[in-house]
Please model this.
Amino acid sequence: MEQNSTPPQKKSNKTTIIIGVTAAILVVIIGYLYFQNKSEMQGYIDEMQEEKAILTYEYQDLATNFDSLQSNSDTLNIMLEQEREKIAQLIEEIQTVKATNSSKIREYKKQLTSMRRVLKSFVSQIDSLNQKNQELTEENIAYRKRVSSMQSSAEQLETEKEKLEQVVDIASKLETFNMEASTVNANGRKTTRLSRIDKIKICFTIQKNITAEVGEKEIFLRILRPDGALLFHSREDVFKYESDEIYFSSKRVIEYGGEEVDVCLYYKVDSGELTKGEYTADIFADERNIGTMTFTLK
Model:
């Protein structure tokens, strides 16, 4: 019986071909897998780069929001400045971190969420402070208005008081009427001869005044000669009038009870003191001029 057998040389070639084909197939498969993996890796890197860019933008937007916050509280301003510095540092870190460092990028995302909550907290605190400041401002304005109104009322009352005091002051002023002047000799008899005149007598009536202060009152007489010289005896004979001290010719103390009262004052004439002409007599009380008259000596 005849047997078929393959020559050893043909078997060897066949094996070589099989191995070569298998290797080629493996190379193709490995190359395919390599390029597929490389493509996927590049896609992953591109995606992470995009996440980095988005994350950077979100942190920059957060920094802008923090920059827009303003407060009158020094403590809050210090805390805000610290957060701004922290955000600036994180932006710098994000720009330098590798895109493949996914754990670090996840950490930045968590911090972003946390800092957004911090931002909301600051906004709430600042709004609360602004509201309180607004309320305080409104209260302060209202208080100032009340104070201004009270001051205006007080000033008005003071003005009215001053006016009333002026009215009362004017109303309380003593006034005289029936003023008469006469001259007498050493015996008390009337005379018109200059050489024999010993005293000048000025009489008048003080009017009734229920608003005037009652009690003892000093009544002063000033007599001016025709040449304007004052008749007086001593430089100590002075009284207060309109914040000044002036000389008087004669004075008398009376008891005034608000009713009409007749008063006479005398001036003792020195020898050779009188001249012919018109004289002026003024009466003073309570630092006011309460009566004036003129008379003539011939």
User: Anything to note?
Assistant: The chain has two domains: 18-171, 176-297. Strands lie at 176-184, 199-206, 215-224, 238-241, 244-247, 250-256, 261-268, 277-285, 288-297.
